[in-house]
Structure formats: structure tokens, C-alpha cells
Fold:
Amino acid sequence: MKIDLFVKDEAKTFKLGEKFGNLLSSPLIIYLKGDLGAGKTHFSKGIIKGLGIDEDVTSPTFTLINEYVKNDLNIYHLDLYRLDTVNQILDLGIEDFINDNSIILIEWSEKLGEYNLSDNIIMVDIFHKKEGRTFSISSNIKKYEPILKEIKSFVDTWD
Ligand SMILES: Nc1ncnc2c1ncn2[C@@H]1O[C@H](COP(=O)(O)OP(=O)(O)OP(=O)(O)O)[C@@H](O)[C@H]1O
Ligand SMILES: [Mg+2]
Structure:
């Protein structure tokens, strides 16, 4: 299933992320794709807030991995932009983060190529528009359909 959403500005990107984060549970990996400056980090900030983290969320562009903890939940926020090969990515220990209590957000997930990290994946593709962005959120996994449907109706009624 795939949903396409128009998101007019940065505040709405955050709001969408926060709603999405409210609906998510572990184990899960979220792939975030889109050009430089598409809004992957702003969307991630919303998701992490929606998962219940109150601390400041900063871009992992330079740190590569940022980690947040809420009770039993571990959240990992990665940016693969500066890595070139799948081996470099695996050297981050990414597969050690995958467990029943983790949610992993991966900016520039296209750097993984065909490498299959998990079955529990939701994909987010962000496209620049003249004004605003289009978010395309999809998953091949049936259990995520209710989340996508709820996100769709949230956006349909948000103003
Ligand atoms: N829906 C939106 N409409 C217009 N601008 C937006 C929207 N969402 C975010 N932005 C703006 O896009 C810019 C880039 O955002 P962000 O840093 O999140 O991108 P990114 O995809 O993480 O970039 P990078 O590839 O460098 O990591 C910010 O200036 C932000 O305000
Ligand atoms: Mg970013």
C-alpha cells in the first residue's frame, strides 16, 4: 500500500511526523529518501517527538547515528549520506540495533541498495514541489496498512 500526501510547509512536516510517531511501535525500520534538503530530518524530528522523546533532536549528518531512549524503546536515527558502501554501513553496527524494542530511522537509505535489513520496513519518499513537498509513504507489509490509512485521513482533515 502507498499513500501520497501534500505537505505545504516545515511546520506541517513536523506535525505529520509527530502523528506518524504516535502510531508506530517497535520493531520497525523507516527508510527516508529524498534529495538534499527534502525534509527527512524535520520529518524525523516530528516522529521522534511523537514517540515520546522530549529532548532536542539534531541531524545525524555528522554524527551518523543519534540514539534516544524512552522506557523499553530504543530509537536510532541514522544518516547514511556520507557513507559509500554497504560494508561501511554495516560497520556502523546497524544490524545490532534491530530488535523487538527498536525503531530505526534511516536517512539516505538508498545507500543500502538491495541489501535487506528486515521485513518490518515503512518507506518514506519526499519530493520537492515548487512550494511544499509530496510525501509518499508505503509498505509491502499488510500490518502497516491501518497506520497508513490513519495518516491519510489525518492529512485529509488537517485544515
Ligand atoms: N513541507 C515542507 N515544505 C517546504 N519546506 C520544507 C518542508 N519540510 C521541510 N522543509 C524545509 O526543508 C529544509 C530541509 O529540511 P531537512 O534538513 O529536514 O532536509 P533533509 O532531507 O534532512 O536534508 P539532508 O539530505 O541534507 O539531510 C528545511 O529548511 C525545512 O524548513
Ligand atoms: Mg537530514
